[in-house]
């Protein structure tokens, strides 16, 4: 998955916003309460969709189901001005009933179509592992005893799995690109 610079930055800001909302200063889980409070200030949140979409997108936490991840992989590779409208993503993303009326409110706004796409993309990125686990596991390998015997088959198996993952990622990217091309978008090739 290739992230555009814009989604790279928004992803980090969204993660920070979710971290801030998740627990209080004593470490208690207060996410549900804080999201409910944010939803009560909907008029203010509607005004922030262009200036700080990551702060508003959290309102849709756990509100999307991604049926075509390849499409979302393609969306997050685009710059913000190039993302498809929400109506074009409806086949790839389903709204959960808990956020349906909230989405309808946002879609009535002038920039609602684009905001909903951005919100779905940020939720998608939040739900995906970001590679930190992979980085820490490779760091653990560096700390391992160099004299420790290693099975040569493990390296071969690891290469095979990595090549399968790369092939799957290419296939998802290609499927996403095909879908966007069918919607009338130019290919990034």
Can you tell me about this structure?
With 189 residues, this protein is mainly alpha-helical. The chain has 10 helices and 2 strands, in the order ααααβααβαααα. Strands 1-2 form a two-stranded antiparallel sheet. Helix 1 packs across helix 8, helix 5 packs across helix 10 and helix 7 (100-107) crosses helix 8. The longest helix is centred in the last third of the chain and has 31 residues, at 152-182. The radius of gyration is 19 Å and the shape is globular. Mean pLDDT is 82; it is low at 131-163.
Features:
10 helices, 3% strand, globular
- The counted number of beta strands is 2
Portion in helices: 55-70%
Q: What is the CA–CA distance across the termini? A: 15 Å
Taking all residues together, what is the mean pLDDT?
82
SSE diagram, text form:
Layout: H1 5-22, H2 31-40, H3 42-47, H4 53-57, E1 64-66, H5 69-75, H6 86-89, E2 93-95, H7 100-107, H8 112-127, H9 132-143, H10 152-182
Antiparallel strand pairs: 1-2
Helix pairs in contact: 1-8, 5-10, 7-8
In short:
This protein is mainly alpha-helical. The protein has helices at 5-22, 31-40, 42-47, 53-57, 69-75, 86-89, 100-107, 112-127, 132-143, 152-182, and strands at 64-66, 93-95. The protein has a domain at 5-131.
């Amino acid at each position: 998955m290739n992230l555009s610079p814009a989604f790279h930055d928004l992803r980090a800001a969204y993660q920070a916003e979710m971290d801030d909302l998740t627990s209080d200063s004593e470490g208690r889980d207060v996410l549900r309460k804080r999201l409910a409070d944010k939803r009560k200030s909907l008029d203010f949140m509607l005004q922030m969709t262009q200036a700080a979409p990551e702060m508003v997108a959290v309102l849709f936490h756990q509100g999307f189901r991604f049926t075509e991840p390849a499409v979302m992989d393609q969306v997050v590779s685009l710059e913000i001005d190039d993302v498809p409208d929400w109506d074009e993503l409806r086949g790839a993303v389903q709204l959960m009933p808990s956020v349906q009326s909230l989405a309808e409110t946002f879609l009535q706004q002038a920039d609602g179509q684009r905001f909903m796409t951005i919100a779905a993309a940020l939720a998608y990125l939040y739900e995906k592992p970001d590679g930190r686990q992979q980085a820490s596991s490779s760091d653990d390998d560096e700390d391992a005893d160099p004299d420790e015997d290693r099975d040569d088959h493990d390296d071969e198996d690891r290469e095979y799995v990595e090549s399968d993952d790369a092939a799957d990622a290419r296939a998802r990217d290609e499927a996403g690109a095909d879908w966007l091309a069918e919607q009338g978008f130019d290919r990034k090739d």
